[in-house]
Amino acid sequence: MRVAVLFGGASEERDVSIASASQIIPALRRRGHDVVAVDTASGAISPHDESARLTMSVGTTPPTGSDLSLARRSDNALRLPSEVADVDVAFIALHGGSGEDGRLQALLELAGIRYTGSGPLGSGLALDKDVSKSLLRSASIRTPDWLMAPATAEEVASVLGYPVIVKPAVQGSTVGLRIVRQPDDLADAVLEASAFGSVMIEAFIRGRELTAGVLNDEPLAVGEIIIDPDEAFTYEDKYQLGAVRETFPADLPPAVTESVREITLATHRALRLESYSRTDFRLDENGVAWVIEANSLPGMTATSLLPQSAAAVGIDYDELCDRICSHAASSFRS
User: Closest Cα to residue 46, out of 55, 35, 57?
Assistant: First the structure.
């Protein structure tokens, strides 16, 4: 197939997207596909320039507003690059922003272009944590209690108790996330997170960090990110080599593993996700799994969590990318 890999964009996850594309592109070529690399903020990249533009490096913090200013000037009007018009499939390697919230997906559908991942509805539902948690609750899927800012420190203490997680409600990669352990620190954390939009205040679940993927309506392996049970899995932890240890499959009792896999698939379906996704959990001290969030476009480097979840059930990275493309080609939304 002729495949356009769409990446970059202008969200705070731009660096993560570039890192994903830097491995998706060669993987698809190894599977025999004709691939064009397209940064949605600047257009197609020639093969000669790919080595300089496509890097696996992700900084310890997300790009700042000034770092993103040029990309945002180019990406401020959502549009399809001309290079996408004649491809068989658009592989969406974007994370956050208009690439993950359903707007790009809707545009591709209007243009009649096949694309990977979930449709506009599922994409939007999963990215908005307030909406997605409400849907999970309606499906009897456990997710921590939460409030939306503004909320007083006293209200948070009464409804949730401390510590709490303060984070943007429509972001990924734990951008803008902080643990607040004392009421006096709440206002500063909310202010910091509000730079990225609406703010969620969520009960903190002390325990183990788990994750599991779904591919074509089948749950993959459950993995564990080994962190302090009193801490959160941060942006720096996710993208700095050796910052944390990740194990696939996780060392869990079989009944817990199966429960997490079942909840992962139930979450995927409750949020109207398609093709593939990844769901993140906290496993509390009583062995109860709580869904933190679902990712409709999870990170896709070879060492990202979804590829590790797939590898643990015998699907290597190149095959995973190929399956994602094949699913898009065979299930075009009319």
Answer: 35
Q: How does DSSP assign 46-64, residue by residue? A: -HHHHHHH------SSPPP
User: 280: which strand partners?
Assistant: 211, 293
Label the pairing between strands 218-226 and 199-203. unpaired
262-291: per-residue pLDDT in tens?
999 999 999 999 999 999 999 999 999 999
DSSP-based three-state secondary structure for 68? helix
Position 222 confidence tier, pLDDT thresholds 50, 70, 90: very high
166 pLDDT above the threshold of 80: yes
What is the spatial distance between Cα 79 and Cα 122, in angstroms, rounded to a whole number? 21
Q: Report how far residue 224's alpha carbon sits from residue 235's, in angstroms, rounded to the nearest whole number.
A: 16
* Rounded (5°) CA angle 8-10-13: 70
Which two structure tokens, joined as six digits, stand for 166? Answer: 């303060």
68: tokens are 């993103």
Q: If you search the block for the tokens 């944390």, which residue do you land on?
A: 244
Rounded Cα distance, 77 and 322, in Å: 31
> Within the chain, where are the H helices?
14-30, 47-53, 65-75, 103-110, 120-127, 129-138, 153-159, 186-193, 235-239, 254-270, 305-311, 317-330
Residue 25 CA to residue 29 CA, distance in Å, equals: 6
User: H or E element: which one contains 121?
Assistant: helix 120-127
Residue 286's identity, in one-letter code, is N
Matching residue, tokens 């660096």: 15
* Size of the chain in residues: 334
253: β partners = none
80-112: pLDDT as tens digits: 878 898 999 999 999 988 899 999 999 999 999
Instruction: Tell me how far apart the alpha carbons of residues 228 and 179 are, in angstroms, rounded to a whole number.
Output: 13
Our measurement of the distance from residue 296's CA atom to the centroid of its chain's CA atoms, rounded to an integer in Å, reads 6
Asked if 8 and 40 touch (Cβ cutoff 8 Å), the reply is yes
Distance, CA of 248 to CA of 224 (rounded, Å): 7
